[in-house]
Amino acid sequence: MKRLSDLLFALGMASVLTAAPAYAYLDSGTISLALQMATGVVAGVLLFGKVQLARIVSLFRRGPPPTSARDSHED
């Protein structure tokens, strides 16, 4: 049994050490992750831009600043 495990270990090490490197292999999971990250970045940038544009526009509007629903209710 010891000889079999030694033989399997030697074969495993030989296959690992003699394996050729894989150059730029991208599976579908990697591509999906990259697309999800890009979509998240675009959505984050658009939302940030929308909020900042609303702040800038509110500086130039006449009248009191808009209040949120939380501020307008009475206790």
TrEMBL record:
What residue stretch is flagged as signal peptide? Answer: 1-19
User: Transmembrane stretches, by residue range?
Assistant: 34-53
Instruction: Tell me which domain of life the UniProt entry assigns to the organism this sequence originates from.
Output: Bacteria
Keywords associated with the record: Membrane, Signal, Transmembrane, Transmembrane helix
- Is Membrane there in the keyword field? yes
Name of this protein:
Holin
Q: Whose protein is this, by species?
A: Allosphingosinicella humi
